[in-house]
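Table S2 (text version). Query chain:
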Amino acid sequence: MTMKSAHVRPETHLGHTMKPRQLTMMGLGSAIGAGLFLGSGAGVQAAGPAVLVSYLVAGTLIILVMWALGEMAAANPTSGAFSVYAERALGKTAGATVGWLWWLQLVVVIAAEALGAAGLLFSVWPIIPVWALALIFMIVFTTINLAGVKNFGEFEFWFAILKVAAIVLFLVVGASLLLGLLPDVTSPGLANISTDFAPAGLGGVATALFVVIFAFGGTEIVSVAAAETEDPEHSVGKAIRTVVWRILVFYIGSVFVIAAVLPATSEGLASPFAGVLDAARIPGAGTAITLVAVVALLSALNANLYGASRMVYSLSERAEAPRFLSRLSRASVPALAVGVSVAFGFAATVLELLFPERILPALFQLVGSTCLVVWGTALVSQLILRRRADRDGIALPLRMKGYPGLTILGLVLLGLIFAVGFSAESSRAQLLSTFALVACLAAACWIGARLSSRERQPK
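Corresponding structure-token output:
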């Protein structure tokens, strides 16, 4: 069948020392990165206050996807997560394709985050050059990932705590500003929202939607980390519930404050959190929020390197990647998988520094819509695997409520997003590039599987 008993661990060699609190904060921290601290400004520029509609649509979709992943991860905690579920539901080629697709997305993002964090830190501390800072970040976080999942989880936990504290403080300052509670500061009220809610119309909302989708990418890493968590059958459900509502509160709350304080034409949207704090006349706000953004990027880099290494480890375990990538160190870490994942990041970082503004944009054009493909595959997999489990009378430790209606609703929302994306020139090329990449990966995985099966046949 499809979903194994909750008491069977598919991978017994990886460590299982990550705490439930670390799993929860990892899911939260991986989603709170540059997409919120910097990308939210681009969303407001594209759609004005109507960007809130984009966040509500994307937020609803990610809730449904996380519920679906939570059900499958609790039943089968495996480092391959949605790649393994896709294999069981749709076949080996589908599982390998979505696994490699997600890995490619993460290793590209790792390079972008290292360079982004280095550039931001250099802007407030122009002593060490950007290339050297990026190199330092890559080395430090590679070392952390090699030290064992418990140490990695603790590091990510405190990174996420710092980001959450910064957002909570921002929301308090923003609410005080809007309510007119700050001394000697005139409140903008809700004039920006009430007078010109959608300055760019429906097209602006559609454009902003893809900015928002990218910002929510990364939450699915919770399902990957479940394989190395204590008591995943119970901790996954708690982590999913906690991550979902906190993300919505932090994202929707922060974007509401930004849209209310800063008009869509404001130069402050280049760094929206700093723009709001400057409007509130908070001294040193720009420097402080820049440092928080650096932490956010490094936290996401840390989590993405973890996710990429575990995914390629799982592919290796299933003979969809070279076997040596599944070798474990004494710390129960797939050290070679970590090395391969970070090597791509090092190479992309060096190329971007040699050819500025040329390498990473081209790579992002390929992987920019990857999360939509991953989410769609996860929903389809849950639809199939849940039906098989119900048919065979298998009890699941965590069941997604509203099945199959809510799963189908998620697929409908995903279909509408694709339709909107293809109707807009700004996102059409990105979607076509991603689909071309998916087709190439699927063909390569199919050919690789055929060749591998021939080699295994007795002669």
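Notes on Table S2: Confidence is low (pLDDT under 50) at residues 1-12. The chain is about 75% helix and 0% strand.
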